[in-house]
């Protein structure tokens, strides 16, 4: 292979002209959910090295076409060649990380049936650069990807949102062919990819901490010339291509599909665009207790629960025989803030190396929980009170906050403690710990009954928290308990006034018949 980097400006950001460019069809949860299908394993296509472009270059939208779409991506550049690389060693074969833009012309996509030879292989369709980040000094699970169109952020995700870890692509591809130094792997795009027009400017950046690739800039221009029907298929579009290129039917200006419309096949993978996601990965099941509880936790009930201290609710639950309803050992990271919401549960089991290998990577239970949490819900994590590892960090806290979650409660540790606190979503935890999940825990299941802080929490249970701690209320008892607690709060306030006036507590707290009669008379 000839090293063109010194003579060809297209490859100036790379160690050499890549022998292979391999791209992933679907890899981010946000994109998969947008498409309505979640792959069980990665699938790939090749792009020619002649499609590489440098930062600042132009890309032409061919005459007579309408659906040129950008896809901001993280590119891996192979440093050490390898064949049949074990997953545990795969990241060691990555030499550098850089920014990429996997442009595609949806007008030609259907005819390629997933190979993307013409739709993504055009000159300038793979901008890379402008700088490389040494893969040895980064955490592949903590890379941030952002894309701008005309200065506006349109994609902002991280490798925490991947269905499959980056190293898996390296290990998987090496099962089938030798990965050579300089080969490039494009690792897929998150939600937010859409159509661009001549005159638009697209920028992509990959960063981690203080390290950045810089912004990869591409100028979209109008091309000249037409396709020759005598030698190949002509560009053609339909509503499916328009919806997928723009990101949704709404963005494409199309009417919503009828609920009973038949699913359309996707040329990208051959999987229906409306099927392929298992119930276990669905954000909310139709008969979910979380939905049932959400209907019980009305704005009126929530307002009443916000008005009552946790201690008062605890007393009322005790009167009804429920003593084991406090999540013990957790303290608020944001003192002074009240939380009320319904439980969305996540269960960790004790760490075991083989189980973490099978359950810890990819779109694991932890990622599914943070992607599925909805507005007004509280993520409750069973970590068995184990404080020797983190159970979430700032990226997942950001995801929960962006989803509108009310709070996070974990009886384990939190890593990136200050950064999590800065996100602003209320968090109750057992303290800070810098270690990653795999040290003590295996993410196992979501939306199941869990044991958090010594009490059982079912999906849909109502949680209330303040500086005293967090309490669990069975939804069926919530109205009765809060009304009784409000009544007790009124009595306690009256008793406190009498104590301030000098009354003895004996016979007053709790009230005997004499004090009760006086209280009732004053209320009347």
TrEMBL record:
Gene3D superfamilies with a match to the protein in the record: Fumarylacetoacetase-like, C-terminal domain, Ribonuclease E inhibitor RraA/RraA-like
**Key words, A-Z:** Hydrolase, Metal-binding
Q: Where is the Fumarylacetoacetase-like C-terminal domain?
A: 20-211
Which organism is this protein's natural source?
A: Microbacterium candidum
Q: Which Pfam families match?
A: FAA_hydrolase, RraA-like
Comp. bias (Polar residues): 269-280
Name of this protein: Fumarylacetoacetate hydrolase family protein
Origin: domain of life: Bacteria
MF terms from GO for this chain are: hydrolase activity
Q: Could you tell me which residues belong to the region Disordered?
A: 248-284
